[in-house]
Design a protein that fits this description.
- The protein has about 290 residues and is an alpha/beta fold.
- It is built from 8 helices and 9 strands.
- Helices cover about 40% and strands about 15% of the residues.
- β4, α4 and β5 (about 160-165) form a beta-alpha-beta unit.
- α1 (about 15-25) packs parallel to α2 and α1 packs across α7 (about 240-250).
- About 50% of the residues are buried.
């Protein structure tokens, strides 16, 4: 095994964009701490996007299966349970990684709240579900960033990425359930955008780099299984490997420093730099980005 580039901590790494980022960072030489709720294949988790019904049918993917892919790249994998709506698991997962490997060099805040309220209209959405969106999509990335920053500052290097969404930049093209999304998703993604700029302003002098990475519309396992009923065509998305390749470039390329603190259009950058050979960039799709897995 070649010498490690360091340790990357990827949330929502059981499937989708998080899995792809973990694998591409492993290809780039990082050992990977894989964080999510779904540790073993076939676990039942609530993943309905609406209060109108429950759906606990298993989704494809798990930390076990992502770990196997990371290890196939010749890197070490460390699966850790993490629920972004439960703050105790944020601290325990980071502590586990630091006790085992002693450092976290790259933090990828990919996971997002999965559950009812995502595709519900305002009057149908209980206020407590808006709280869950804010807890998972805003407070969890902030807490994780605060946990890893001190070590990065001490080493004078580190990379923090937030997988963001165009839903936080503007109104949806239609109402929730008809090709749009609910208030909780849009407002929480809009709020977490501010984190990267603050990290850049306060810690660029400490050698810390931070990026908002916008995936655009990406085909994931959950997009295929769940989102057709809400007006989303999974076949129109880019492969998750596009964003995996961009994340690895941001973590390793010296020229990526020029984008510190910025919003990075993942699909455009991948196409411009040819980061995923064989992928032909499609025309942009005007739907919300990203599907952080759990």
């Amino acid at each position: 095994m070649s010498e490690s580039m360091g340790v990357a901590f990827v949330t929502g790494a059981s499937r989708g964009i998080g899995k792809a980022i973990a694998v591409h960072l492993a290809k780039a030489g990082y050992d990977i701490a894989l964080a999510a709720r779904t540790v073993h294949e076939g676990e039942a988790r609530e993943h309905s996007s609406t209060v109108k019904r429950s759906d606990t049918t298993p989704l494809p993917g798990s930390l076990d299966s992502t770990a196997a892919l990371v290890e196939a790249e010749g890197r070490q994998a460390l699966p850790v349970f993490l629920d972004i709506t439960d703050r105790t698991t944020l601290g325990s997962s980071v502590t586990t990684v630091l006790e085992r490997w002693g450092r976290i060099d790259v933090l990828v805040n990919n996971a997002r709240y999965i559950g009812p309220g995502h595709m519900d209209r305002l009057l149908e959405t209980p206020v407590e579900l808006l709280d869950k969106h804010l807890e998972g999509n805003v407070m969890a990335p902030i807490i994780l960033t605060k946990l890893v920053l001190p070590g990065m500052i001490e080493r004078k290097s580190g990379v923090i990425m937030t997988i963001t969404s165009g839903a936080g930049r503007g109104d949806p093209p239609a109402a929730a359930g008809e090709g749009g999304w609910g208030l909780g998703y849009g407002m929480s993604k809009g709020a977490v955008h501010r984190l990267v700029g603050m990290v850049k302003l306060e810690h660029e002098r400490d050698g810390i780099l931070a990026y908002n990475l916008h995936p655009g519309f990406v085909t994931t396992e959950r997009m295929v299984q769940d989102m057709g009923a809400f007006g989303f065509d999974a076949d129109a998305g880019a492969p998750a490997d596009v964003i995996g390749a961009v994340a690895a470039w941001l973590a390793t390329a010296p020229e990526a420093r020029e984008l510190n603190g910025q919003w990075v259009e993942g699909q455009e950058l991948c196409a411009e730099l040819g980061l995923l050979p064989g992928w032909d960039a499609p025309s942009p799709v005007s739907v919300p980005a990203g599907d952080g897995a759990d």
